[in-house]
Amino acid sequence: MGHATDATDSMGTEGSTPGAGPPLGLPRARDFTASVLRGQAQVTFLPSVAAGAVFCVALFAAGWRYGIYGLVGTAVGTATARLLGADRDRVTTGLEGFNACLTALCFAVFLGADHLSTALLAVGGCVVVTVVTSAVVNVLGVWGLPSLTLPYCLLASTMTIAAPGFERVWHHGEALAALTSAATGSTVVRPAGLARAFFADFAQIFFMPQWYVGALLFAGLFIASRRAAGVAALGSAVGIGTAWALGAPAAQITDGSMGYNSVLVALALCGVFLPARSTTLAYALVGAATATAVGSAMSALFAPSGGHTFTWPFVLTTLVFLAGAKSFPRLAGSAVPAA
């Protein structure tokens, strides 16, 4: 299920033919489209065409420009991997598309989706992140660890920190760099805010703040796997609860910025890289709570340079918990496919 094949297939799948594609014509176009949609769904570890289609609709609901950036970005990453001769299974299941999808959306959100320079940089970024993905897969594969969204995080952080130094790229005036300060604002989250926070946690995975976008994304997740949707829901709840218990401002909880990493951590540690059972679910939820605190630390770390947390808390927390799981027999075992 999902990115789990990164750890075992870092050097390619034995017996497969690198770079080989389906016959020319309509079947090839259909297969490529399916790979692109799976790439969008792989953001939440699901190689599902149906989930990818719903995710695509969700991005267009956020704004047609974001829908195009997400779709074209995934397509560029997938096509680049095919042209470079990447393993066919990785391309087909969408593993070569999800980092490109997030990269394109990141450029659109932080540089402005209306600018030609943004579009050109996004396309270039999707090509580069495909190369970075291969490098990260090969390096982490030595330790049996997956690449996750680390390739996109590396490129996105570089872009946001460097962009203000280029006038033809940065269109926002002053840079985003700022010294960190103590949290302020009300910590009271009302019932309506809790519901908004739950769906916003899913929307923020794709940089979108709208709760209805999150509702569509959650629906796509549910269509592809009820079990995954349940785990993700618990991850969101733990992220919200942890942020509230620690005294995070209500505004940061309700806009989803405190919980989206928790959703991804819960999914990764229960049913993707570790088998789905009660012990791993508890382990995953501890990881989800940890990611909430790590998110605040990463925000403080990146703020002075104008960077952003992106999914760094998810990447770091998941890698640590997966490495640690190798010493715990009760957590060991093969991940199971989505129901």
Protein described:
Helix content is 63%, strand content 0%. It is an all-alpha fold and 339 residues long. The termini are close together.
Name a few traits of the molecule:
339 residues; mainly alpha; 0% strand
Give a short overview.
With 339 residues, the chain is mostly helical.
Count of DSSP-assigned helices: 15
Q: What is the N-to-C order of secondary-structure elements (H for helix, E for strand)?
A: HHHHHHHHHHHHHHH
How would you sum up the global shape?
Answer: globular
Distance between the termini: 10 Å
In the predicted model, the low-confidence regions spanning at least 5 consecutive residues are 7-23
Helix-and-strand structural type: mainly alpha
Please state the CA-atom Rg, rounded to the nearest Å.
19 Å
Biggest sheet details: none
Strand content: under 5%
Mean pLDDT equals 88
Number of strands: 0
Fraction in helix:
55-70%
SSE map:
Blueprint lengths: L4 H4 L17 H16 L7 H14 L1 H20 L4 H5 L5 H14 L4 H26 L8 H13 L28 H13 L7 H14 L1 H21 L3 H5 L5 H10 L8 H25 L9 H14 L14
Helix pairs in contact: 2-3, 2-4, 3-4, 3-10, 4-6, 4-7, 6-7, 6-8, 7-8, 9-10, 9-11, 9-13, 10-11, 11-13, 11-14, 13-14, 13-15, 14-15
